[in-house]
Amino acid sequence: MRSKFRLLLALLAVFALLTAACGDSDDTSSETTAAADEPADDTSAATTEAPADDTTTTEAAADEPDDEPAADALPGDGQPTVNMGRANWSSGYVHAQILHDLLEELGYEVSSPDGLEFAPDLGYQTMASGEMDLWANSWYPGHYSWHEGDLPDGTRIGDNLTVVEGSVMPGGGLQGMLITKSWAEDNGITSLDQINREEALWSQLDSDGNGKGEFYGCPEDWTCDDIMTAQIAFNAWENLEQTQAGYDAMFAEFLTKAQNGEPAIIYTWTPTSYLAQAIPGETTMWLHQEAILDDSNPTGKEGGESYDQGEGYNGLGSDVCLGPAGEQCNTGWEAADILVTARTEWLEANPAAQALSEVFNPPLIHMAIAGVALNASDGSQSAVEEIAAEWIANNRELANEWITAALAAA
Fold first, then answer.
1. What's the CA gap between 270 and 96, in Å, rounded?
2. Is the pTM of this model over 0.90?
3. Which of 65, 270, 278, 363 has a C-alpha 20 to 30 A away from that of 23?
């Protein structure tokens, strides 16, 4: 319990620093900011944010008789089963499940998202081919690369899909590289580019003796792995290479090294529980990149123009992000929009589902705390469902606003 409480405090501290990076829509930004700004020594404030712990609040919220909007005929009544999927990273499981449950409140029969779990390459193809109707786990602009493939009927994958703007977490996917704080400070490290230039630094990351320093990247087909491959080519990081494996295993190895002060670098993102364990500013630091990947597609991959990171993100302070003296730290990645993508034909036939997807935007910190709860569970689908149900019960008023908007559209 003490370690879980410490993780929650760390999350609050991290998200207080990252609030400006995360571009929540007007509907929920005030709630997110309030949660992130609560003082770390206020134990009641931290624990009441945890969706898995407050069973009495859940029961009370669920028992209130007049909370849910009334509807005689729901828009999903009599409609075919909705085939909903999810991406194969655990940080997206709970918010996908929340959307699933809210669709069911609209009367739809919805398949369990864990039955159609894919990496993005297969996810968009499956949607475009009609075997899946929607998921809530798109990361744009990077995922636009998967819209460029062709289907057997000659149509482009993206021609069959609709990106639901404004949904889920616009600007919520802060991304970048974390480095062991003590190692960076002891060696005067200010950027990933510096590590590539100085053999005394990259050689400390060369665990297999092949003459290249390794950093922990992304599993294959997550898209972030392709973006990092493009970054290596674009920046001519000839002395660095990406390690690819299961992310949880890579993160556990990284965290052990970071806590021991050993050289290590890893890609990570928000919202996740990983940051609560890595604790930027204490155990790790975000790491500066000198040049930001553009749309030149240096690896020539289909759709690689979508890997463009714009101006990157430079909103993190020097207390959590390393950078050259006198310069703003830039993570090298722009904050991605985490959005709902749906099969166009299905979405056009279901205006209530589209309206729900447009306003569906759970606060970032809530989703990160949900990740902590999932990480502390057995990780099963039943645990995902329980955490999602508790979030809805504890945030009934917000959920009702979304349901009301969906009913109005129907």
1. 16
2. no
3. 278
Q: Is 211 left (phi over 0), alpha (psi -120 to 50) or beta?
A: left
Task: Calculate the dihedral angle through the C-alpha atoms of 317, 322, 325, 326, rounding to the nearest 10 degrees.
Answer: -30
Tokens of 280: 């930027």
Q: What amino acid is encoded at 301 in this protein?
A: K
> Residue 236, Cβ neighbours under 10 Å: how many?
12
Q: Which domains does the chain have, with CATH numbers?
A: 2-172+338-409 (3.40.190.10), 175-334 (3.40.190.100)
Q: Please name the residue that has the structure tokens 């636009």.
A: 144
Statement: residue 53 has pLDDT above 60 = no
DSSP state of 106: T
Distance of alpha carbon 14 from alpha carbon 169, whole angstroms? 17
Strand partners, 110: 82
**Number of helices and strands in the chain (H, E):** 17, 10
Q: Summarize the confidence of residues 239-246 as an average pLDDT.
A: 97
CA 150 from chain centre, in angstroms, equals 27
Which H or E run contains 2?
Answer: helix 2-18
CB 216 within 8 A of CB 235: no
Q: What is the pLDDT of residue 14?
A: 52
Residue partners of 368: CB distance under 8 A and separation at least 6 = 11, 15, 270, 271, 272, 273, 275, 276
Q: Report the pLDDT value the prediction gives residue 169, as an integer from 0 to 100.
A: 76
pLDDT one-digit tens code per residue, 58-111: 343 444 444 555 547 899 999 999 999 999 999 999 999 999 999 999 999 999
Alpha helix stretches (DSSP H) within 309-350: 344-349
How big is the chain, counted in residues? 410
pLDDT for the residue numbered 170: 76
Identify which of 178, 29, 93, 25 has the alpha carbon closest to the alpha carbon of residue 370: 93
**For the chain, how are helix, strand and coil distributed in percent, rounded to 5?**
45, 15, 40
What type of residue is 280? Answer: P
Q: Is the peptide bond before 271 cis (omega within 30 degrees of 0)?
A: yes
